[in-house]
Design brief:
Layout (H helix, E strand, L loop, with lengths): L5 H4 L10 E6 L5 H15 L5 E4 L8 H14 L4 E6 L5 H13 L4 E5 L18 H14 L10 E6 L10 H14 L3 E4 L7 H12 L5 E2 L1 E2 L5 H11 L5 H9 L3 H21 L4 E5 L5 H10 L2 E3 L5 E3 L2
Parallel strand pairs: 1-2, 1-9, 2-3, 3-4, 4-5, 5-6, 6-7, 8-9
Antiparallel strand pairs: 10-11
Amino acid sequence: MSPPSLMDTHPNLSDAAPVALSYELFPPRSPAAAETLWTTIRELETTSPDYVSVTYGASGSNRDTAVELINRLVVETTLRPLAHLTCVGNTPQELAAIIGQLLDAGVRGILALRGDLPKDSGAPIAGSLRYAQDLIELIRRVEQRRSAMLCAGKIAVGVAAYPTRHPESPSEAHDVEVLLAKQRSGADFAITQVFFHTAQYADLLTRARRAGVTIPIIPGVMPLTSVRRVTRLGELAGVEPAPELMARLAAADSDSERRRIGVSATIDLANAALDAGAPGLHIYTFNEHQSALEVLDKLALPRHSRNGLLADAK
């Protein structure tokens, strides 16, 4: 008889695991926006997140400002950047150069995305990549060529996951098959798009695990404090926000009341995801820290502090 495994000997080992914490930021579009963003960055930095993701415009439309923000995060803060990268409209050679630029800046995590299709629906650029799966495989090839520089390390590659059907997908089952294909191509983890109903993350997790997806699936949540923003994100995600939430937000008579309602709804989504077994939480901040920190404060996530002890994130 073989000896018991470590997990058999310590069945509650996973109970001590802290919850991963991350935020999403986007490059500023003006000097005033940059000032606001850096106030947010300094406030978020106090919570010691595991990483912050930096968005990347369609076809690299804000590439320079994104790379500049990443460079500043590496040099001027303690934050670890996760660089978004889209592939539609770019050739493998162009993307390999961008990946090399990110690695040279100190980035060790990339969120590999397809990106929005061109609005003119014209023919794709000859030789350009078409799917996130292609980009994952390209990242792994670049990584292999740079293995000595990375000290035989590894780039953490993340991908998108969809709690509800992707607007261009024939079904939720197809979305899970795509996620499984991304895993097979080398994805390490997934972050979900926004969702508005508490059962949606658990449903995604069940479908994905049954299909063979084993990578961590991190729920992405946003403070639901703005009717305009929630409506727009609902349109992009192809899902209708909860009507009762929209009605309560619209009826609120002050910004503080809307923030209270939205933060409470976000906490409900986050707690439902954590109860379903979420390994972490990714907060879409829209470069604003107040509501994100209110959500975090009320969740009191178990987190590792700087001295290595387990503590609540506040």
